[in-house]
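Chains adopt folds. We examine one example:
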Amino acid sequence: MQLKYLPLQLTVKNMATTQHLVILMLTTTLLLVNSEPQVPCYFIFGDSLMDNGNNNRLHTQAKVNFPPYGIDFPDGPTGRFTNGRNAADVIAQLLGFDKFIPPFATAKGSEMLTGVNYASGAAGIRAETSEHIGARISMDNQIKNHWVTILRLSYLIGKGSIVETKKYLQKCIYTVGIGNNDYINNYFLPKYYNTSSVYTPEQYAEALVEQHSRQLQDLYKSGARMFGIFAAGYSGCTPGMMAEFGMNSCVEEVNSAVKLFNSRLNTALNYLNNRLVDAKFIFLESSLEYPNDINVTDTPCCGGSSTSSKGQCVPNQVPCSNRQNYYFWDAFHPTERINVIAGTKAYEKLTSFDAFATIGLSKDNVTGYISDA
């Protein structure tokens, strides 16, 4: 899928530093001056915030291959849980790829050399997470799918040599964004899951991070070395969770539990950085900050109640017209505008990988990237 975007200009206020980041022309002009991507490949793991079509063929309620999803995407509905691009798409553009990273469900042949997206809507760190919704690809199964990709790549790269393929993968960027559903569709859903009666919030965060650390080490064993790990989002502030709890403001009980997970995850990544040779794990923090002109933060641009539509847009529904002013697209997922901000901030941190310095590339090599105003 070629990148076919019109210029997009946003002014973003970073409340923590009072800086303004001007995101200019997130288009094909974001490719490197020499038209080569900054890294040879980009692999994506996660949930619906990153899914770009892997759930389309699954028997699940967690799929969005229908309008109005994709209303601002050139090819229409693709399975992305938003109106346009997700954060992984934005990162791929900023890295200089001339096509979006393909979903594992349809990836084939040489296109896999530039990476694969394994993310699945409703997926969790724990295998049982979201099972009441239907089929989904858990983090463990996403890793299994990655091994399938490695086997396929071995015949493209090293005549069947896994060793040579792993050397290639060491040059790639890996991002992982998962854990949201382990709270939304597990811990805080006692109707279907008993985790909240088995674990205290502290114990649950510890158990999740312990399991996720093993998963990240499995990726390391497969050849991955450069990791960007997204923190779990503050799901207590989503319209869906506020509706579930009958509140008109953020659900602090949920956000407090998520903070425990994020804190322990950050500590675990520091441990892995010290323990795993040549690995670098970058923690990509979640933020509740947003531009001042995004003035609708508690109502989705489209969708019904969390109970009648599972928090998703109703098929063929007419969404809001002023999407640039909305934080949430549906009851759980952000608009493309928020994804652009999140993806850009993540890319800023990813450029600290040694690989960028090694090949003489940095954010300064990207046309129309970011300037401080």
About this structure: The domain at 10-372 is CATH 3.40.50.1110 (Rossmann fold).
